[in-house]
Structures are given as C-alpha cells and as structure tokens.
Design goal:
- The complex is a heterotrimer of chains A (255), B (314) and C (289).
- In chain A, helix 3 crosses helix 5 and helix 3 runs parallel beside helix 6.
- The longest helix of chain A is centred in the C-terminal third of the chain and has 15 residues.
- Chain A is an alpha/beta fold and 255 residues long.
- The radius of gyration of chain A is 19 Å and the shape is globular.
- Helix content of chain B is 76%, strand content 3%.
- By secondary structure, chain C is mainly alpha-helical.
- Helices cover 74% and strands 3% of the residues of chain C.
- Chain C contains 11 helices and 2 strands.
- The N and C termini of chain C lie far apart (52 Å).
- The chains are: A alpha/beta (255), B mainly alpha (314), C mainly alpha (289).
- The interface between B and C is large, with 37 and 44 residues.
Chain lengths: 255, 314, 289
Amino acid sequence: MVGEGYLLELCKVSKRFGGLSALEGVSMGVRRGEVRGIIGPNGAGKTTLFNVITGELRPTSGKILLEGEDITGIPPYSICRKGIGRTFQLTLIFPEMTVLDCVWAGLNARSKRVWWRLLWGSPPEDQATRNAMEIIRQVGLEERAHELASNLSYGDQKVLEIAMALSTGPRILLLDEPTQGVGPQEATSIVQLIKKLSAHTTIILIEHDMNMILEVCDSVTVLNFGSVIAQGTWAEISGNQEVQRIYLGERSWIS
Amino acid sequence: MSWMNKTRLDKSYSLGFLAVLLVLGLVLPSGARSLVVQVMVLCVFAMAYDICLGFTDQCSLGHSVFFGAGAYGVVLSLLWLKLGLIPALLAGLLAGLLLSVPLGIVSVRLSEAYFVIVTAIISAIFHLLAMDMTWLTGGDDGLSVSLPKLSLGMVDLSVYDPHTNYYLVFVSLLLSYLVLRRILDAPLGKVFVCIRENEKRALFLGYNVEWYKLAAFVISGTFSGLAGGLYAVTLRYASADYFSFYWSILPIVWCLIGGLGTLSGCWIGVLLMCLFQYYVSAWFTHYLLIFGVLILVVLRASRRGIIGYLMARG
Amino acid sequence: MSEPVLTVVFLLMNGLVWGLLVALIALGLALIFGVMGIVNMAHGDLYMAGAVLAFFLGPLLGHFWLGLLVVLFAIALIAGPIERYVLRPYEGHPSATMIATVGISFILQQLALAAYGGIPKKMDPPWTASFSLLGVDYPGYRLLVAAISVLILGAVWFFLYRTSMGILVRASIEDRQMAEAMGINTSRILVFTFVLGCVLAAVAGVMAAPVTQVSYLMGTDVALLSFIVVIVGGLGSLAGAVITALVLCSLEGVLSAVLTPVQSKAAIFVLMITILMLRPRGIFGQRNG
C-alpha cells in the first residue's frame, strides 16, 4: 500500500487516548490530483484521522509525510503553510467578519512574513484582497462578499469555509462532511463545487452520503474501529466481505 | 453594506470626541480641566486594554503591572536619571514593553481560565513586592517628583502651566489613538480579530496564534505603561497602589461599558466611570461596594457596551 | 534539640496546620473549577466572610463551635443563589464568569468593611491548652484545627468517591462535555458544587479566625496562595490541590525562617512560573491531546 510518489503518505499512524485506541496502524497514500473518500461508521476515527494529519493531535506512533517530507508532530499552522488546508465538521468561520475578510485571512497568512508588512499594509487595497475576490468568485459567493459571515445561510457558510481552506493555497484539501446539515439544493451545488475544485486540487473527503462519494471520489478508504479495513477503487472494495458486513442493511450502495 | 456605515460611525465618533477634547482645554475651569486630563490619561489605558480583551479575547487581570511599571518608569527616570519629560515618558512606555514581553511569554499560551488567574497572580505578586520594596517605590506613601520643563526644540514649556499639561496629555492620547488605529487597520489588527473570532480557525489558516497573541499582549502592555507614565506626570506622583488589583479591574469595566473591540468606545466608559467615581465617592464612603455591583450590572447589561450597541444598530 | 532546629520544627508545624487550612480552600477552588470551568475570584473573600461571621456569631451564640455550624449554613444560603442567579447567565464564558466573581469579591469586602470596620482584630481561641510535641510547646487549638481539617478532607473524599451525588460531581470534572451530553451536569450539580466549594473556604475561615487576625482584607493573601496552589497542582485536580497546598505551605513556613514573608511569597511565585513553563497545566493537571 505504501510506496513512492505519493503526495500525502501515512505510515502506520496510531492515536490512543488513554486506553482507547482511536486510530490503529493506519497506512494510506494519496496521489497528486486524486480525490479520496474516507468512509466508515460513526466513531470509526475519520475526524481523528484529519486531526492527526493537520497537526491538531500528535499521533502516538507512526509517520506522516507530505511529498516525502516528515510533518509528524509539527504545529498546525506550519502544516497549513506547507499546504494542507481543511474544513471542520462543525463549520468554523469568523462570524463577525465579512466574507471577503475571512478569505483574505488565509491569503494573508501565506504571504511573505515581513514584519513591517504586518503594520503598513492596507488590506482593502492589497494583492491579497484581489486574490480573495478571485477565490470568492470561484466558489460563487461574489454577491455576498461584503456580507458578515454570520449572516450567510448554513450552506453558504459551508461554502465559505471551503473558500477559506482554499485561500491558504493548499496542495491537499481536507473536507470534513461538507454537505452535512445542508438542504438538498445547496448540497448539490457544493458537490458541483468540489467536482470543479478536484480538477486542479488533491482532495480528501469525509462523507456519509454514498451517492456523493460515488460521484466525486476516485478511490475510497474504509475505516472501522480506527483501522483501515479496505482501500482502493470502487470496484476493488465493493466486493470486500468486511465492508459489506459493515454497510449491508445500513445503506444499499453496493449494487 | 452596513459594515461601511459602522466604520464611518466609529470614525466620526472618535474624531468628534477628540475635537471636543481639543476645545475643552481652552474653555474649562481648572477643576473640571484636571478631571478631563485624568479622563484622557485613562483613555490611553483603556484603549491599550481593549487591544488585549477586545481584539484578541485575552482577559488579563494583570494590567496594573504595566500601568504601575510605566508610572515608576517615569518617576524613577526623572528622579535618578534626571531625564527630560519626553524621554521620561518614553522610559515609562519602555517599562511597559520590557515587562509585558516575559509576562506575555509565560501567560499567552495558557488556556482561558489559566490565563485569567495567572495574570491575576502576577499582578498580586507585583503589588506585594512594590509595597515591600519601599527603598525603590516608596511603598504606599509613594514618591513625589517635580517635573522638568517640556523642551520642544526652540521653546521650553512648564508643565505646571495647566494648558501645557492638558495639551501634553491630549497629544499623547491623539498619538496613541492614531498608532493603535493604524495597527488595527493594518494586516496585524485584522489577524487579531481573526483570533478573537475563532482561534482554532486562525490556527488552521496558518497563523501562529500564540505569536500574535503575544504581539497583542505586548502592544497592550506597552501602551498601558505609557498611560501609567502619563498618570504619574499629571499627579507628579507614583505609589505602590498603582499595582493594586483595582487598577487591573478598572480597564475591564471601562471597556465593557464603552464596548469591547471598538478601540475608542471605551472612552465613553472612562468618562462615565470618572464622573461616577468623582460624584459617588464624594457622598458614599463604600464607593467600592457600588463598584462591585456595577461590575455585575455592566457585565449583565451588555456584552458589547454602549458604542458596540450603537454600532450594531447603525 | 538545638534552638534553630526547634524553630524550624515549630515553623514546619505551623506550615502544615496552615497547609491543611489552605488545602480546604484550594480543594473548594479546584472543585468549582473542575465542574464550572472557572476560578472563583471571590474565594478568598468567602474565607474572610467565614472569619468575620465567626467573630460576630461566636460571642453572640456564646459558643465557638455552634458559630461554626451557623456560618456553614449562612454561607451555603448565600452561595447557592449567587451561583444560580449571578454566575449562571455567563455559563460557557469563563472570562465573563470570573469577572462577575471579581464583582462579588468587591461587594463582600466592602460589606465586611462596613459591618466590621477597617481595623484587624484578634479573636481568642476556644481552647487554650498547649501540648509538647517533639520538644516544642504547641498550641492545642492548632492541633485541633489540623485534626478537623483532616476529618473534613476525609469526609469530602468519602462524599466524592462513595456517594452517588459525589460520583456525578466527579464525572462532571472528568469530562464536562460528556457529562453534559449525558445530562449529568444539571443545575443541581452546579449549585451544589459551588456551595460546597464556598462552604469549604468559609469553614477554613472560621477555624483560622483565632489563629490569625480577622480583617476585611484577610482573604487577599489567602486567595493569592490558594490560586498559586491550584495552578501548580493543576486546575481541576482535587488530590493535586491538597498535596500542593501541604507542600507549598510547609515550604513557605520553613522559608519564613530565613526570608521575609514577602520574599518567601516571591520565591513561591518564581516556583509557580517555573512549573508553568514546564507544565502549562500544572503538576497533576491532565494534558490535552
């Protein structure tokens, strides 16, 4: 499973909380341009996996490599600057800031850190603001750019969070249930957005909606009790006994 | 685009307030003038505190340390080093800066409740030490100092002249406001707001949150030092009492009344509290009892304060 | 034994007795922090309130220990409504809640000043016998205070580990979110914990009244010490609070043989900062992640 040429590679990553094992020897590799779905029952360790990759949690053992560079245990902000952007299951945005400022924040974070720029720049006119408008246009929120983030609908907040993750210039985008709690119409447009993004970004996606996984993902990793029980393309995993056992009766996605 | 209106409202309120202060210096009788001088000094302190609580959501109970350090920075540099007035004020500012760096390094990485309590402990220890080290601070009795002339290149002005004193403080307030406004309008200030709005999101956008919190803490401590220095200059006196817990609580009350995260909103809070203290302490000995009740009432009445409330409507 | 050794033994014993009282106060703080997520800034003033009330009630009731019981109930009656109606509205906002407790602290101090006056007063211990221990003549009342403190600590332990209510309290400390999700962290637990914490401080205040001077500002010093104790011990760690209180107070007692009180406070402060730099969550605190 583990080999050369991966953009992101996990080698036997484990995470234990006290006696509880949230991740157990997870190994996986994601290639450039791939869209990888992560599925599994509730509590399988999907979000913990994201937290470990992005540095929110330090893995108990194992290694995480980004283009061969070991990023295990370095702080979240440097992992982000190295090119891993993420969204959260419970949407995290800056409620009292405008949509434009929210996206500006990510662009500003990666602009060259010269201390006088922090003091003498003027956000409304700088390059970051122009680039932010570009990203906002890309996700289709341009009409609401000057609106406060808290005034957006929940679906638009989810889109805004994706835009914020994009603004950090990620090589890999980690999306944690981007359509959860969103109406069907908005969900469709989010799926369209992700498909559009997948043309030039590597994406890892946690999702419960199997239709969406089928629609956008090239390959899938199935987690259960913190372990990878199967991974590969649809054709490869849909025949897997264990996967069928977990999902049979729950959802009829294996046809 | 309501946020544009808000910015405009904020700007016109701040400039209006400053314009009124500019005129008041000429027309007020001496009693009221010294009260206004005090208000202006404390406005600097309040703005400095707002950077900490209002813009990065760090609820410090230790700002009396910087205020007291600034006051002693000025008084001791006048007494011992015989500095001029402006260099002495800069020494006060420097005292705030030099203390806020190590104290910030210790405290900004702590979680919310830890931060509050550790800053409170720090201020209590500094108060104890200041009371104890009478050879340095004069303890509770404090140190009095006579002020040198204010030399501005060509002319030397006496700060014992009430107008000079008034405009020295006014210019300090104006400069502090302009510098802090600049910082807040710059990328740095926007990052502060990001951290206040959602620390975790800021971290996962690639910001070293601790570093920025430290920056805010140090800017806040530096200007608190300047405020303490100005306070010592206007009273020509500094005492260990400036380190007391009361001086850490006051800026919270000012900012809560005026509005957190508005920079100039707290001026209203300072004004109201100074008037309140001036009149209430005159007829009621247990003024602090009302102060305690006031904390609870203000906290309950509005999380955003008067200016925040107006801006939310405007 | 030689004179200096005797002095150190005497100071050490003072430190231990004092440490037991501080342990009661710090345990109260740690309980409140564990369940409510806040540090009660008025804690020292509840200690003061206990002492001042004892000063008034002792002579009035004619009996010190009866006074203690009455104080206990009085403080419980004050603390309950404070939690429910003053602090509860800020639940989930630690900073705001702590500022509110600062307000309460000002109110308590000024009420005491108004009722009691500004001058510190001495109070006679209810028991004047003294014992010779390890060659040192030691006041019996202090030993009694130590014994009662140990009993109270034992009772609190029994309550927390052997009664269903106590187990609910501990569950709330262990994992507040989980307890909330399971519906444990009810209004009842919050009020109860706050009352228990405050009563512990007040009882310590009553017992300390004959040992120290009673004044409206007596809570300030104690609050500082117990804040340091819970920070070093790890906020929310009950055993940590008790152990740290005993160690720090004995240390302060011994240090007072060579340093002034302020210097020994400063030394303990430096110790606290060092520990915080090494372990931001205290010695016994849980690390996250």
